[in-house]
């Protein structure tokens, strides 16, 4: 065994049991992915001609993309609307977005297969297809997030010149991220406008792209609240409740606009009967009441906006509602009354569990080894040696804090 391998093994042995469990789930997910590529979709999944899109599309793509929307949402709030007091939340949101979109790409490769042909999208353009637009935007946005993610990497490694270049590119990257995200978040809804005779009238309406975009905004804000609360509780990071209160003041407005558009589109623009299937109606009501109305009412109260537990509770309701909405649109609302119900196979489930575990694991490890919770990094002049040395000391402090979270 080499010295490097021995160091890595000893480091892993020192991890908390939770991280070791996440590593085990990632390994299981990787093994299930290998099985999928060896034996093919027909043997390893419950997908068929009736259900060509299953768990991997409904969760790993259609749901995971808005769950990773915190980066573009917060970037726009901080840099475009100049709410600079929220700057400490930007870098963790960027890391979350980068990991989310990277794992979305993994889910797409598993569902589509033929990863060696992924470059065809960039060469053989089909400009009339929403899938083409989404694929190009996801690739572009993942690249933008990667460039934004390089800042803490350069800080950790002491690469000051690339860091100054990234600082210079910061505003163009933020603008590009917001523009690209607006395109593909809405285009995910465009997919389902093709299913005119299949998607139930409770969810099918011409404003579906707008609804997808609005829901991505308030979900991105809620993910930031969830993330900041969790890293404070379990990783010893600063309590950002005061900053999160600013976000909770924004949430009721976005939720309110979404609710008005949703109800108006459903009642005025949908085609077909709305109340013919009680089970789907129950899912629709649960999505609206639990995921929109309840958190909107909560965050309209000052006591809920200031209390960390209630902040987390309201954000969790929003996230639950978003997940239910995406499954309603992409899976439950697609099922016809006389069709057999689709259930994901063991391989499909293990892959999705592995992707979720990988997101959590990589975020914790990046927080452990890189300064992603560094506050206001733009105030440092990296051209001065004494400032650079001071910065290194700050990084050692952050690294020590992260190490404490891992053990």
How does this model look, in words?
With 407 residues, the chain is mainly α. The protein has two domains: 226 residues, no CATH class; 146 residues, no CATH class. The radius of gyration is 22 Å and the shape is globular.
Characterize this entry briefly.
The protein is mostly helical and 407 residues long.
Offer a few descriptive terms:
407 residues; mainly alpha; 18 helices; disordered C terminus
Mean pLDDT: 83
Total DSSP helices: 18
- The proportion of residues forming helix, as a percent range, comes to over 70%
Number of domains: 2
* Assembly annotation: single chain
Using only CA atoms, what is the Rg?
22 Å
Order of helices and strands: HHHHHHHHHHHHHHHHHH
Major sheet size, sense and barrel closure: none
Question: Which descriptor suits the 3D outline?
Answer: globular
Give the tally of β-strands. 0
Strand content: under 5%
Unreliable stretches (pLDDT < 50, length at least 5) are 376-407
Helix-strand category: mainly alpha
Cα-to-Cα separation, first versus last residue: 24 Å
SSE blueprint and pairings:
Blueprint: H1 3-13, H2 17-39, H3 41-44, H4 55-58, H5 64-67, H6 70-80, H7 90-112, H8 120-123, H9 130-157, H10 160-168, H11 170-191, H12 208-235, H13 241-269, H14 278-299, H15 302-306, H16 308-330, H17 346-369, H18 385-406
Helix pairs in contact: 2-17, 6-7, 6-11, 6-12, 7-9, 7-17, 9-10, 9-11, 11-12, 12-13, 12-16, 13-14, 14-16, 17-18
